[in-house]
Specification:
The protein is mainly beta. It has one helix at residues 3-10; strands at residues 18-22, 27-30, 36-38, 42-49, 56-63, 67-72.
Length: 74
């Protein structure tokens, strides 16, 4: 999967939540559009959103080579 592939999914309008599955089997669910920044070789995710402030409590950087799949969430 390329950075452009992930950008198309992460920045689509209207936004649709998606799951990033890593090669390790771990997954990251993205439910809001502003929780993802895609660079050429890595992705920055905002995680554990505070429900009151809607601010991410932590950040996670994932190497693009570690992404096994990106699938829509229902």
């Amino acid at each position: 999967m390329t950075a452009d592939d992930i950008r198309r999914i992460a920045y689509q309008r209207p936004f649709r939540p998606f799951r990033v599955t890593l090669a390790s089997g771990e997954f990251i669910d993205i439910r809001r559009t502003l929780r993802t920044t895609v660079a050429e070789d890595r992705i920055l995710f905002g995680l554990d959103e505070d429900p009151e402030t809607r601010v991410a409590k932590r950040l996670r950087i994932v190497a693009l080579r570690d992404v096994a799949a990106v699938t829509p969430l229902e």
